Amino acid sequence: MLDLKERGDEALVERLVAAFPDAWIEDPPADLDATVARVARDIGVRSAADAARFAEQGAMISIKAPRMGGVLEALRGLDATRAAGVPAHVGGMWELGPGRDQARLLAALYCPDAPNDVAPLPRHEDSAREPSPLAVRIDLPGFGPHVSHVGHGPRHE
């Protein structure tokens, strides 16, 4: 994923696509023709309606619950991308604790093979990554606080 933050121009995007043909170009300039590259939209996705509008243009959609007003609107956004037949990925916005667990759970359930920025990071004490994919606990009530990592047991009790 190459994030342009809505900067640059068509020539820059063409050079990036030539150098990284399998990459998604996230948030190229808004007036860029979506056929130039594999386009992903993030910045302008603030609701399920925004997700549906960009999905109709064929763009991959970045779903971020905090930006969209909560998990229910994020779920509606994920439904909109599925209805349009375009990929989605779940992104984070510096959440910690239960918010990060919820984002990881959404990513694991709705788009496990998509790029994301909420995957487990290396631990501070060593360079090994936590196991992936995440184990999804469906035997406990609630959403998020019971997400556990394969082989590590519950993160919160």
What is the compact description of this entry?
This protein has 157 residues and is α/β, with parallel strands linked by helices. It has helices spanning 10-19, 48-56, 65-68, 71-84, 98-110, and strands at residues 2-3, 25-26, 39-41, 60-63, 88-90, 148-149, 153-154.
Highest-level CATH class of the domain at 42-121? Alpha Beta
Weakly predicted, low-confidence segments: 147-157
Strand arrangement, largest sheet?
1-2-3-4-5
Corresponding CATH architecture of the domain at 42-121:
Alpha-Beta Barrel
Structural category is alpha/beta
Full CATH superfamily name of the domain at 42-121: Enolase-like C-terminal domain
Major beta-sheet overview: 5 strands, parallel
How helix-rich are the residues, as a percent range?
Answer: 25-40%
Order of helices and strands: EHEEHEHHEHEE
Q: Ends: how far apart? A: 35 Å
Q: Please give the count of helices.
A: 5
Strand content: 5-15%
Q: Return Rg in Å.
A: 17 Å
Overall mean pLDDT score?
79
CATH topology of the domain at 42-121: TIM Barrel
- DSSP strand tally: 7
Principal-axis shape equals elongated
